[in-house]
Specification:
It is built from 2 helices and 9 strands. The strands form 2 sheets. Strands 1, 3, 5, 6, 8 and 9 form a 6-stranded mixed beta sheet that branches. The chain has a 3-stranded antiparallel beta sheet with strand order 2-4-7, with no helix packed on it. A hairpin with a 7-residue loop joins β5 and β6. The termini are far apart.
Length: 154
Amino acid sequence: MSKVRIEVLDRREFLITSGAAVAALVALTNGALAKKPATEVLNELTKGAKPAEGKVKLEMPEIAENGAKVRTKITVESPMTPEDYCKSVAIIAPKNPATFVGKFNFTPDSGRAYVSTNIRLAETQEVWAVAEMSDGKFYIGKATVKVTVGGCGG
């Protein structure tokens, strides 16, 4: 009878390995969307539905002195109950070389649908935040940012 040797990863090895796998999967998924025009990205995210105005508050500075680091805050009005919650929020920057900036997922356990991050903007543009709700509806918030220097292009 042959012996089978099973190696067990310690917690640190497991976290490093699983984190790298998730990062690779996200990069592949985001990369496919990033290369598409903003209207196609919006259409894919909303499954062809036209998002309604409201429920999404996108806060960004009117003028960004450095396009490489633009403060972005998104809040979605939602009770965040198992029956009624915000599933995700995506950021689209139509004039960036990579129009799909990113997507943040939520569950009712998140407590509230809120994101605070920095994004890169190539030039002055209107940025879109698109929320997907648990009932299948989509909402959009928009903000125009004037970029004075820096950004993706230099």
